[in-house]
Amino acid sequence: MKAGPTALYPGSMDVAWAMTPTEKGAVLVLICAVAAPIAGFMFARAHDAWSSLGKGPFSIGSEEPQRKRSDPPARVDPAIQAAEVRQMLQAKSERQQRRGEAALDVEAEADRLLAAAEAPAAREAIDAELRAEVRQLVVARNERRLRQGLEPLDVEAETDRQLADFIGSP
Questions:
Q1: Against a cut of 0.85, is the pTM above it?
Q2: Are residues 112 and 133 in the same domain?
């Protein structure tokens, strides 16, 4: 066996040392020409792995609730709602009594809260300043429609529709 640094390698190192810099560059280019397409192919296949990283059945992102804004909230039976309101007011009254405060009149408070929930949003209940601002927006939209050659909207009806959309009333 040979002694020295080349004794560790089974093949002859004379070929690598005997190459000129140009030949070494050609070998490097040849290796890159083969390795680059293989690496590109592997990166293209790894895209699915990168896009699914952090997702799965145990990820935190799957715990977020699905939001559907298109479905209106389900109507609650008024009898159930009244019973729940009375139950919460009774509990509030008991807590106040334990603290030494005056007890609530549960029935009167429940009637007041339920009447306020059932009262529709009347036209007079809307802030006059908000109504004026929405009306200005409708008038500006009508002016744009006229410039475009479209038929103008009924200002009052459109203002009412915009306010109903904003407040959430039907």
A1: no
A2: no
